[in-house]
Amino acid sequence: MKRTCVIGYPIEHSRSPLIHNYWIKKYSIAGEYTKKSVPHETIFEYLKKLKSNGFIGANVTIPHKRTALQVANEADAAAVAIGAANTLWYEREQLIAGNTDGYGFLTHLDTSAPDWPADRPAAVLGAGGAAQAVIYALQQRGVSKIRLFNRTRAKAEALAARFGDQIDVAPWQTRSEGLQDCGLLVNTTALGMAGNDPLEIDLSHLPQEAVVYDIVYVPLKTPLLAAAQVRQLRSVDGLGMLLHQAVPGFERWYGIRPEVTSELYAMVAQDISASSC
Ligand code: ATR
Predict the structure, then answer these.
(1) Going by CA atoms, what residue is nearest to atom 16 of ligand 1?
(2) Is the pTM of the predicted complex or chain greater than 0.90?
(3) Which of 67, 89, 210, 215 sits at 20 to 30 Å (Cα–Cα) from 100?
(4) Which atom in ligand 1 lies closest to the alpha carbon of residue 189?
């Protein structure tokens, strides 16, 4: 039995077990994917001994993604650039850390809006961990201008200093007017998430060919995505990113590259609608 898990604190609301156990069943693998709640005090030791804790690999989520990178013997280029890891596996008895968030973000974008205008500036809202993965992915794709809006300017400036001069930091208050000429708008903040304040933004400045991407997936259709649809802009939801980021980890652990199917999407979407958190 090949055991894997997702480790976070708290972890109750994670949908990763639904996703990975769907694939384990679909591909008739002798495996099991569970949730592990591990507090700050013990996370380093827990990850260090992942194998003796019974796991061939794991996903790591908030608030332990930075620790996952620190614990590992080696890391892939994405984890190093983003400064955090969400996937752990073993190679030659060494613990390896990877980050698949940027991959999931970009794959879902390419699948949902194949000709999204990558030659225009991209607007990114937020400067937390999720924003780092999004900026890394956009730079990998060759987006040459990223306009970064964050409530706390200093955090946006710190990101710009790390990711280079393709990033223009703009005041949070200008997030609506600042969309003119952008080909992509990405919300990486938690605004619009169930239980949080809505994201206040006026999409009328976006060009008609622009794509609006919200990485929030509870609710599935956030007020931002609803506003994009009213303006007849293409919209991309956060659930697809979650599903696609799971693919490389599953392949590492179980040796099969799993498919993101509409059946899987519908199953997780149903779980989200049923619990609304
Ligand atoms: P994650 O790792 O999921 O990205 P995070 O690091 O806590 O989470 O980042 C949350 C982002 O949402 C931050 O950019 C935060 O802005 P600040 O840097 O100013 O804290 C943003 N955010 C959260 N609540 C917000 C609010 N009410 N208004 C504007 N931005 C908000």
Answers:
(1) 151
(2) yes
(3) 210
(4) 12
